[in-house]
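Data availability (excerpt). The following record was deposited with the supplementary files.
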Amino acid sequence: MRELACHAFGQLHHANAFGARADDIAAIKANGYAAWLDAQFALPVTAGHFDWLVAQGYAVDANKNTFNGVDNTLWRKLLSAPDLLRQRVVLALSEIFVISMAGIPVTWRGFAVAAYVDMLEQRAFGTYRDLLEGVSLSCGMGVYLNMRGNQKEDPKTGRVPDENYAREVMQLFSIGLVQLNDDGSPKRDANGKALETYTQSNITDLARVFTGWDFDGASATDPAFMRKPMVNNPARFSTGAKKVLTVDIPSTADGPTAMKTALDTLANHPNVGPFIGRQLIQRLVCSNPSPAYIARISAVWSNNGAGVRGDLKAVIRAILLDTEARSIPTAPGAGKLREPLQRFIQWGRTFGVTSPTGVWNIGDASNPSTRLGQSPLRSPSVFNFFRPGYVPPGSDLGLNAVTAPEFQLCNETTVAGFLNFMQTALQNGVGEVKANYTAEIALAADATALVNDIGLRLAGGTLSSATTTAIATAVASIAATTDAGKLNRVLASILLVMASPEYQIQK
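Predicted structure:
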């Protein structure tokens, strides 16, 4: 029970993903894992990012072409919002259905990002079909993948509809590149070649469906339109019959009707369960899930027990309560490398960081040599910070074909940069955001007790006795006869635990 209790909000089986609070640990011990999930699912969505930006005075002309305030509000909720599970899932969804501040060159761009994350929060525990529609019609995605303003073909000028969103909604957001069995393995032809899910002609057909969409009431003085779904302009919508994969869309269908048929078709494709389900397992539990694990999640995706397909709440519950998520694995390729972003958030939540004036001024943490090498909603491309199928080359993982996406961020620069950044953050905070170590200082006189406590809360009690002893010995060498000495013991314990491979590889 100890490891599961300490994991209190991500994977519920080894180390906590964002940080285990004492009340979460107590609740799981008292009521069990399923009851804790029920309580988390029932928590309301708290004050949104868009409303926070408005309330903080960012909706002014000077911010029309900036992302001012966006990093602040993203860190605000990731580090302090009470709906822990939703925040964890929203971060996962933002790394699957990607938009990035690196590619939204439009007026009121910061509010487009804020509204997009608000949409993910509101739909995170609903159905995949509803989420896919929210993603497709959001202003942020419309700009990021060029569906906003996409026009019908014009034979006179040679103009053709933009294919960007049509390609990525299939490749990344729904069915993937190859046909899959329920366990995630590729379907193959008689010659052993993987069967493709779509062709270039399918992209071209679908691009015609995604024409005519634009902002609803764009304004140069008010960003409110950024939180509305895009609307269809019939004059720019491609006429004539269309197809989405093998499904016909008649020429009589208008833009919204054609969009509905397209999204219904994609959401009902048999690939979606294993394709998106596997990525959710990767983001929430382990990098290289077994075929049996994927198949179990695919079954829940197909039917939540009440005939509903793509029930995200049921899928998330199944992922976190699966037997493979509730046991500590021993295989060398098991578990996952914690993302730098998750390590930082876990530190913040575990040690109760606060922002005294509410500005949460951590900023962009993307610099790999001086910060985390990763920052929310700032991935370098639509392919996220790392690819779900990434296999580290020149490694034992690579030799054994073990997928380990997070290792795409791991190199000499990011390893050193993370530890240097955390050393400063532990002692001084980041901006005005600082931790509270009162409880840990009370344990500082006993180095072993201190390291055991921090190892439990950060690593779920998975540190080996040798590692714990080595850290405790180093910590004990720091004199604890003064308040400053006790604090230094705490800071050293946290940093050494977070630097250890047994912590960074979450199992």
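Summary of structural features: The longest helix spans residues 412-428.
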